[in-house]
Design goal:
Blueprint lengths: L7 E13 L2 E11 L4 H7 L1 H12 L9 E14 L4 H5 L7
């Protein structure tokens, strides 16, 4: 059985890396998300990843628009989400 409690929303300071001119650039930026794990953010938080892609690649025609979140440096709780983590991830919570 999954927990249906409402997750926290975090303001995160994260180290990210992306490719620019055939080299990797690493920098620190902010992220607002219900997930506090870099892998979960990259897999399930499409809004944050599209914001980062737009921020760093703008309207570039770069073929490799991968942005990776390397680590979370700082985490601060700023509120509660209206949806459970299962709903955030898009998984079925057992409703057949």
């Amino acid at each position: 059985m999954t927990c249906l409690s409402k997750p926290d929303i975090y303001y995160l300071s994260a180290r990210i890396s992306y490719k620019k001119n055939k080299r990797r650039v690493s920098l620190v930026t902010w992220i607002v998300s219900c997930f506090d794990d870099p892998v979960d953010i990259m897999l399930y938080d499409s809004k944050t990843m599209s914001r980062l892609r737009q921020l760093f690649y703008k309207n570039s025609k770069a073929k490799d628009k991968r942005i990776s979140i390397e680590e979370i440096l700082e985490k601060k709780v700023i509120g509660k989400s209206q949806r459970s983590l299962d709903e955030q991830k898009g998984t079925d919570s057992g409703n057949n």
